[in-house]
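for the recovery benchmark. tokens below, seq after
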């Protein structure tokens, strides 16, 4: 969506104060732990852009709570798996040998949206070390969330997703369908035919660039089915933040349900 489109669909500029009010009306409160997925353009035309949205989220959660966002960098992943766009086979090894290493303080996000990419640069925000599936966090439990992100646990038990689960976080979605938390269910679920893909990325180790490899569960296109089934018997708060449709849900409940669903349906 272009900025012009955002202007046309927004009756009045969306301010930080408006976002704060809408987030509180949705049910987000001070002291909570929340994982945010967002689209800046879905919010409408926001006065000040992405920083206004980050400011609003921090204002509502406060330093007594914890704010987290996925800050993935798929541009550093194994190019063998790239589809949007794919690259020629003969490029793969050269890309793996020459792509710059992941640096938490520098590497941009890809496909995470303007709000997450802005958030990673904020004072006090800490980013995990994973080359392709990092998370950034701010607030009381930020260090706990991101400090022990194992390379071989992109979205599993030694990832920020599991630490957010420990903290009984809620998942806030602002104008997007993405729900990274269900990938934790993929790690936990045991079902016939479960398979894994080999992925990798470049890191800095003792000042030297090297390529690390790791396995990740092979996903299936069923997250929307899981969410629809979950909502039949679990609370999902719906509302509007700015011009965006928003939802707020317990990650712990969703992951537990998703794990059981996958074991029964995959």
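predicted aa per position
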């Amino acid at each position: 969506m272009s900025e012009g489109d955002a202007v046309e669909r927004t009756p009045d500029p969306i301010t930080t104060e408006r976002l704060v009010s809408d987030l509180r009306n949705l049910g987000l409160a001070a002291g909570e732990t929340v994982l945010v997925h967002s689209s800046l353009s879905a919010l409408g035309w926001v006065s000040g852009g992405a920083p206004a949205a980050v400011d609003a989220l921090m204002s509502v959660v406060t330093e007594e709570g914890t704010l987290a966002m996925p800050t993935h960098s798929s541009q550093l992943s194994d190019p063998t798996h790239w589809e949007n766009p794919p690259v020629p086979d003969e490029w793969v090894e050269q890309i793996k040998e020459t792509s710059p290493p992941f640096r938490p303080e520098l590497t941009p996000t890809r496909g995470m949206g303007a709000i997450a990419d802005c958030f990673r640069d904020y004072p006090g925000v800490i980013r995990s070390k994973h080359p392709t599936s990092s998370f950034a966090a701010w607030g009381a439990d930020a260090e706990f969330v991101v400090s022990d992100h194992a390379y071989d646990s992109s979205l599993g038990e030694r990832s920020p997703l599991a630490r957010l689960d420990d903290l009984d976080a809620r998942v806030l979605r602002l104008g997007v369908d993405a729900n990274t938390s269900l990938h934790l269910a993929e790690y936990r679920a045991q079902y016939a035919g479960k398979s894994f893909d080999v992925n990798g990325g470049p890191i800095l180790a003792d000042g030297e660039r090297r390529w690390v490899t790791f396995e990740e569960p092979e996903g299936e296109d069923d997250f929307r089915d899981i969410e629809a089934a979950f909502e039949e018997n679990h609370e999902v708060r719906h509302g509007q933040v700015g011009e965006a449709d928003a939802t707020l849900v317990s990650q712990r409940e969703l992951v537990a349900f998703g794990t059981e669903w996958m074991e029964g349906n995959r």
